[in-house]
Amino acid sequence: MKIALAGNPNAGKTTLFNALTGSDLRTGNFHGVTTCVARKKSGGAEFSDVPGAYSFSGYSMEERSAAEEIASADIVVNVVDASCLMQSLSYTREILARNKKVVIYLTKTARFRRRGGKVDVKKLSEYFGAPVYDCPPSQLKKILLSGVPKAQKKSIALEVAYTPPDFSPSRADRLFYNRFFALGFFVAAMAATFFIAFHPMMPGALLKDAAEDAIVVKLGGVISARLKSEAVKSLVVEGVLQGAGTVLSFIPQLAVLYLILALLDESGITSALAFCTDGLFEKVNLSGRAAFSLISGFGCTAAAIATTRGYCTPSAQRRTIAVLPFVPCGAKLPVFLTFLSPLFENPFPAVTCLYFAGLASALAFSALLKGGSEDMLSEVAPITFPRPKTVLYKLFFQLKGFIIKVAGPVLAFCILSWFLSHFSFSFEYTEVERSMLAGLSKVILPVFRPMGIDDWRLAYASVCGFIAKENVAATISMLFPEGFALPLSAALPMCAFILYCPACVSAFSASVKEAGLKFTLKCYAVQLAIALIAAYAVRLVFCFI
Amino acid sequence: MNLFDIPLKGRAKITKINVTGNLAARMQSLGLCAGVEVRMLAYSLFGTCVLVQAGGARISVRKKTARLIEVEI
């Protein structure tokens, strides 16, 4: 049995889908978070989460896929934000006309009632001729799986069953719709995030140091005392603990970043911000929706690229994909800290500058690209107090994703790097300088020499970033067991290179999926060139000082 | 007078929508139709875009599109 969840954008389909199936799909209090159909089996039925749509006419790319999904479903659950029932009527009618078995489910009823809205579920069922529910998701699931009761259509007026709430903007709404306040708030929120995460006396940095100490020093000490074989000891302590383990210790700082992003998303501030900053985005030929994508880019570039599917014109989508890698993702954070922590007692201002420089470069680069911008006509979500459960859930799953990535691909890569760096071409256990890795990396070293990098290990570490940005930090801490510090004149060019260099493999595949291989390759070539030029330029500045 | 000219916090009634095709369909489904009362909520940075309330929806409309929607106060 196929059950499809459909409705207008931001009705709460994905939140319901997550509750029904125990999934962890990305949610957010703005329009167009879900961009492709998600499916999951639960309780003997296949649920599908359909991207939000307003009609079947296919104005945007995601609306077309929604229409196909609804036509093929056994039961359609029309998810309706209780406050916006009036405006979703036309879509509900279209669904009713296309599929016999429809259940209407009202969401966000608490806010609806608080604002004075009234609904009589039984009378509304009679009005639509389809069962209407506003029960908790678990109860809805039971109803769906045990067979949906039929509802008799009667000719009653909608006013009898439904009274809309008061829509006038609240005080919080008015505050965040003020362009100056919204922009100031965003800058302040990001600065506060970085402050809590990076200032040496703040929880982010303190917890990070404690975690690193526990993993590398304490656990490493215990393990190396127990192991006899020199090679095995080196693999476990240097390869696994110093490599992947060090990256894991960045979790507290990433948690701060992810938490603030989740709060901005769920409270609807991102949505208000997208509207308020539209002027800025129009000047650089980006669509207003690009604000969502760019803010998501602070978390993960691949996820941000996926959000561009909701755009109505392919040229606007491509432009956003082209500039997204300039917005530093969460995974670049450990890399910047690896370079900057040895130089600054308090790396907070430096890292903040890098993040804002990345955002500014993305906007500047977009202004240079040709092509018209997209007409903006989109809904803006009201400001609400975010539900702690939703925010924590979101944070938890993002961190889980990070841990899985480090424990899987990054760990595997560390072990491979360890192997390459401890064996010679004749497969003898040897010192690092004579290893295969040294031989191979010296080939690419000339590219990095103009940045002031003379060590092949750093050249190798930067190249590892193309697989996953976490690898750069992992490789550096693994290959420099004696400790790592670069002078400012070499660390800054490296940071510039990392800031601008093309995104990782998962972002690459997301980009290929959305914009095609040819376009993606072109982007990567341009980004690589910009990264090298920027790094050389920064080095040049130091030569003149 | 068009949608873009409504003063902040002002209310007006849509009289005509000079748009065709997909954009018109999108407007209709968002509730921007002739006869609907709209309320001006905010202007974006540099005044390129307006935010209006129409029924239960808050819709942001760029200047170029807003000029095609005629209103009367």
Q: How would the global form of chain A be characterised?
A: elongated
Assess the beta-strand content of chain A as a share of residues: 5-15%
Helix and strand pattern of chain B: EHEEEHE
Q: Specify the structural class of chain B.
A: alpha+beta
Total beta strands of chain A:
9
Major sheet summary line of chain B: 5 strands, antiparallel
Helicity level of chain A: 55-70%
**What is the number of helices of chain A?**
26
Helical proportion of chain B, percent range? 10-25%
Oligomeric state as shown: heterodimer
Q: Order of strands across the widest beta sheet of chain A?
A: 2-3-1-4-5-7
Regions with little confidence, pLDDT below 50 for 5+ residues of chain B: none
* Head-to-tail CA distance between termini of chain A: 70 Å
Q: Summarize the biggest pleated sheet of chain A.
A: 6 strands, mixed
Keywords:
heterodimer; A: 545 residues; alpha/beta; six-stranded mixed β-sheet; two-stranded antiparallel sheet; 26 helices; 61% helix; B: 73 residues; alpha+beta; five-stranded antiparallel β-sheet; 2 helices; 19% helix; globular
What does this structure look like?
The complex is a heterodimer of chains A (545) and B (73). Chain A is an alpha/beta fold and 545 residues long. Chain A is 61% helix and 7% strand. Chain A is built from 26 helices and 9 strands. In chain A, strands 2-3-1-4-5-7 form a 6-stranded mixed β-sheet, with helices on both faces. A two-stranded antiparallel sheet of chain A has the order 6-8. The termini of chain A are far apart. The mean pLDDT of chain A is 84. Chain B has 73 residues and is α+β, with helices and mostly antiparallel strands. Chain B contains 2 helices and 5 strands; from the N terminus they run E-H-E-E-E-H-E. Chain B has helices at residues 21-30, 63-66, and strands at residues 11-17, 37-43, 49-54, 57-62, 69-72. Chain B has a 5-stranded antiparallel β-sheet. In chain B, a hairpin with a 2-residue loop joins strand 3 and strand 4. Chain B is globular, with a radius of gyration of 11 Å. Chain B starts with 10 loop residues before the first strand and ends with a strand. In chain B, 47% of the residues are buried. The A-B interface holds A 54-55, 57, 59, 83-87, 90-91, 164-165, 167-169, 173, 177-179, 183, 275-280, 282-283, 288, 312, 375-382 and B 22-23, 25-31, 41-49, 51, 53, 55-62, 64-65. Strand 9 (377-379) of chain A pairs antiparallel with strand 4 (57-62) of chain B, so a sheet runs across the interface.
